[in-house]
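cron nightly-structures :: item 1 of 1
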Amino acid sequence: MDPALQPVNIHKTTLRIAVGSLFFMAGLCFASWASRIATVQQTMGLSDAGLGAVLFALPVGLMCSLPFSGWVIPRVGSKRVLLTAIVVYSCALVTLGLAKNTFQLVICLLCYGFASNTVNISVNTQAVAAEGMHSRPIMASFHGLWSLAGFTGAGIGTFMIARGIDPFHHFIIILGIVVIGVAIASKYLYKDEAKKLPSDPLPFLSRMKMMIPLLTLGSIAFCSMICEGAMFDWSVIYFKKVLLAPIAVQGTGFTAFMLTMASGRFIADGFVHRYGLKRTLQISGCLISTGLLVAVIFPHFYTAMAGFLLVGAGVSSVVPMVYSAAGKSKTMSPGVALAAVSTIGFIGFLVGPPLIGFIAGLATLRASFLFIAVMGASVAILSSRAKLS
């Protein structure tokens, strides 16, 4: 790591807890929206294809945030950007519950996606600083906290749906939780200054050539995060429309997915140490594909639950492992390599859900889940061909 990014005068455990809490808050915001998509779709009277078109506002917001985040973080510092962005993120979540028509929902999703990726980039910058104080990788544990928050948010969403609580009041509660958490954690984050941030003097074309070895890693992340994003946005709808599950249990598939995804990320480092990176990625891709095939071929409540558990276990470790491999790049600095791979992967995370909606509109929702299974298989195939240690 660049010495300029090394935190000073901060206890490593304190910083790790503070950064981890911000990962948790970010995951809670995202899962809260994901758990209420079916409710919003019903309220708006949107078809699957219509919902897919609306959800496309999220990746648009992401793409708009990329140049902004790259410009503002070096000038203001990741701490200030993170604290501001996560409050804006939770406020944008509340506006999603206030939207009364499709146009308003699209505008709110644009802001939500913009804030989401700004939080993603700034919180990972803080994570890099925290990891620099430890003698071993800890990035997977941060992503595990994000997933644990997703599981928590899914549980809260299931409770809110069962009690008939509308999304607006649900999201107001989440906003309150985030504001309190940010107020406490803000005192213990790494305060980076603009003059301490590394600069990259290489011209644009030279940087693009240096990224070529990372394309395989980015492709693996892209395929995995298409699956992950689709599960976030469409798992509740799958249980509602395909399985015809009662309203009180429509969120249980998403909860099962988040359970194994969160727990898997906390054991990922040990699994890789024992079986190797390539073998672990291959197993992960097979688990994703098998789980989705089970849910599609046997469209019943318990078999779909079992399938979603397998999918969660499969996607759990792919992104942290790919990020770790990118950080060991020999062609560029760890921070730049991580940013390149995470950007490619996150695009898949946001493009996947609307793509699933379009496929569902052309065919069926089960057919769109078969497409996700192909993406899972692609993780295993790409991992087999990649040069991974």
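cron nightly-structures :: done
The chain has 16 helices and no strands.
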